[in-house]
Amino acid sequence: MNAQTLCGVRILGTGSAAPEGRLTNADFEKMLDTSDEWIVQRTGIRERRVLDLDKGNGLTLAHEALQNAIDAAGIQGSEIDLVICATVTSVMTCPSTAARVAAEVGATGAAAFDVGAACSGFVYAINLADSIVRAGRAKTVAVIGVDAMTSIIDYADRTCSILFGDAAGAVILRADPNPELGCIYQHMGADGSGWHALYIPRYEKDIPACDSENKTRLGCLRMNGKEVFKFAVTKFREVIEDALAKTNLQPADISQFVCHQSNIRIIDAARERIGLDPSQVYVNIDKYGNSSAGSVPLCLDQLWRAGKITPGKPFVLVAFGGGLTWASSVWRI
Fold this sequence. Notes:
Elements: E1 8-17, E2 22-24, H1 25-31, H2 36-43, E3 47-49, H3 58-73, E4 82-86, H4 97-104, E5 111-115, H5 121-134, E6 140-148, H6 158-161, E7 166-176, E8 182-190, E9 198-199, E10 222-223, H7 225-247, E11 256-259, H8 264-274, H9 285-288, H10 295-305, E12 315-321, E13 325-332
């Protein structure tokens, strides 16, 4: 499409995918010095979905989620102009996951690129997609969030290993003549000075002095849990309050706050400080764990298919993650 008068953006359909494999807290009790009670109390997680890496990977999940979204939207893959995929666990650095998934669904010729913003990735990606459609640069856009986190976890590291699982979600966006539809406010930010609180070093030289005693294997995720918790609780609240203030909305005006599933204590702390009703804040971390960029779109698809996101009441996407990054997106459908 050529540039034109700003339009609205309609969500045509959503989809998601999660592996059948499950890693329960009872499994961790056999692997580490931990217990079901300890994990549930500190994270809210009881089990997480896990890929069989001999049979699939993040690309597999991304393809399944996108195909499910395409089917729900009632379109053909060839109608897609652009594919944006948020991930930090690409099968390869080159080519992008987005390019390979586009080919899998028949979106040959569509522009395609990956976004790397860790757990904030999907919200970054959907914000970009909305802006591109509104500017008239694309008509139909597929946005995917996917991470195969278990492929980058050192299971000897109790700090990270109990938190993460694998999942993907996707949405199909299309230009709409009603400019009131779509993202009515978005915010994205980053503070790279805190990068070492959550990172994946490839080489010994990548490890900062403050983390030199960490025994986690190279190529695996490392996390300073205390620093990330402090950052997340504060930023979570700030991002939601900012979104409400900038849109002149009250918490009761929002149908759902679709939040990154990082840790139940982080979610509950932010919810209680802002005064949100528990029914407005969806939680599935107990069954899926933290799937990074797959977390928010997985929740969105489950809410969408359950009929909990409806016209008349906006919904809010919120995420924070490595970078350190954060993002919000307020949507009207």
